[in-house]
Design goal:
Blueprint: H1 9-47, H2 52-87, E1 103-108, H3 112-117, H4 132-138, E2 142-143, H5 144-150, E3 157-158, H6 161-179, E4 183-185, E5 190-192, H7 193-198, E6 213-214, E7 225-227, H8 231-238, E8 242-245, E9 251-260, E10 279-289, H9 293-313, E11 318-322, E12 334-342, E13 347-356, H10 360-365, E14 367-370, E15 377-379, E16 381-389, H11 390-401, E17 402-403, E18 408-410, E19 424-425
Length: about 425
């Protein structure tokens, strides 16, 4: 749904401009009167002339000018805050390839049925025997019941080889990222709300549903801490109020963190098992590049190719999609998702996402670089991409590689060296 400004936005803006003009005229007159007062004082000292009456009159005029000036200034600040708050809700521009519906780019590791169908939206049928929750609980790999008792719904214990599988996925994703020139970083999982807002994430969505956990220990603070739903937020904030030299760009980081998502409005969605949880481990890629669309779109393609190689190397069947404009979120100019085949769910499920935010976040975070040619300050472009959202990748591995004959899960070959060279996960 397109975002529109309120009906009285233009009226507020016009009022603000009128008040600014009024303030400017008042300040100019105030400057004249202040100079006049200064001149009277100098004349008294140098020439011994008594300007008592003139000074009293001038002082009264100065006072009369100052009082309304303060009120008008306060009104201007109020209007500026209101206009800025509303304007900050405006989303980014949209790339020409983005449409009203998702578009298939390609399939990864397609099955024969997918190839033969020649369909852009291959229909799936649910196979309850491959449900990851049932399989993992039976094999002793996850405990939702005790986690619900301890923490509430949407939390879980990963146990045994499932916990080892998480670490294997993290280490494998980090290794691939380092090999592609990304520097390692472990960011904080809590950030100030102004950083969250600047990145285009808000504690509550348009329906006032809670999306981000806020810490409320200090209720007097106007800039509370939020628990991040992705390392993207803390990484974007790393260079807030920062000026790069052009020669220092691009900058690439890969961060691993725990991520937290309240998703209070998720009732009725697919919340079974590991698909939609409140806390999870995520490996995130983040890039800062020159403020040139050609440069940032080239980086966008590089990040998307990294994700495709990662998913393909795990042997997972997936589809690559250009997401529609109503699925971009506020910061994204273009977004590509990779969704894996999840037979136990009977649906495709999002594993990764890559977004080019152009200068949307950089403007709000004041992240700039000095142009080497003309010396002017320009805003960088920021891009973020999921390297590995661990629970969903585990879900996809379980539902695609479970062997009912042996009641075991086949471990993807690329992960085995991180799992004590095991080939299968069996009952713990």
């Amino acid at each position: 749904m397109p975002f529109t400004l309120s009906d009285n936005y233009c009226y507020k803006y016009e009022t603000l401009n009128n008040l600014r003009s009024e303030m400017l005229a008042t300040r100019q007159r105030l400057n004249i009167m202040n100079k006049q007062m200064k001149s009277l004082i100098i004349q008294e000292k140098k020439k011994g002339v008594d300007h008592k009456e003139e000074k009293i009159t001038t002082a009264k005029v100065i006072k009369q000018l100052k009082e309304p000036l303060e009120r008008v200034s306060e009104k201007c600040n109020e209007l500026e805050d209101a206009l800025t708050a509303e304007a900050s809700m405006l989303p980014n521009l949209i790339h020409t390839s983005v449409a009203s519906k998702q578009k298939l780019v390609k399939y990864l590791n397609p099955t024969k049925e997918i190839i033969d169908s020649k369909l852009d939206d291959f229909p799936l049928t649910r196979n309850t025997k491959l449900d990851h929750k049932d399989i993992m609980e039976r094999l002793g790999l996850v405990d939702f019941r005790e986690a619900t008792r301890v923490s509430g719904r949407g939390w879980y214990y990963l146990k045994g080889d499932a916990a080892l599988l998480e670490q294997a996925l993290v280490q494998y994703a980090l290794k691939l990222a380092r090999n592609c020139g990304f520097k390692m970083i472990i960011p904080p999982s809590m950030v100030k709300t102004d950083i969250t807002n600047a990145c285009g994430f808000r504690p509550r969505d348009q329906n006032n549903e809670k999306q981000v956990y806020e810490l409320t220990a200090d209720d007097t603070s106007s800039n509370r801490l939020c628990m991040t739903g992705t390392a993207e937020i803390a990484l974007a904030g790393l260079f807030s109020n920062h000026e790069f030299k052009e020669v220092d760009l691009p900058v690439h980081y890969v961060g691993v963190s725990r991520s937290y998502r309240a998703e209070a409005g998720a009732a009725g969605r697919d919340t079974r098992g590991l698909y939609r949880v409140h806390e999870f481990t995520k490996v995130e890629l983040f890039s800062w590049v020159k403020g040139d669309e050609t440069v940032s779109m080239k980086e966008f393609d590089r990040l998307a190719n990294f994700q495709m190689r990662f998913i393909e190397s795990l042997g997972l069947t997936a589809r690559v999609l250009i997401m529609p404009f109503n699925d971009l979120g506020a910061p994204a100019y273009k977004k590509i998702d990779i969704e894996a085949l999840m037979p136990g769910r009977g649906a495709w499920g999002e594993l990764t996402s890559v977004s080019n935010c152009l200068d949307f976040q950089a403007r709000r975070l004041t992240t700039q670089y000095r142009d080497a040619k003309d010396g002017k300050l320009r805003y960088v472009h920021t891009l973020n991409a999921t390297a590995c959202a661990v629970p969903r990748v585990i879900l996809a591995i379980v539902e695609n590689f479970y062997d009912p004959q042996t009641d075991t899960i086949v471990i993807p070959e690329v992960l085995r060296s991180y799992m004590d060279d095991k080939e299968r996960i069996s009952k713990q």
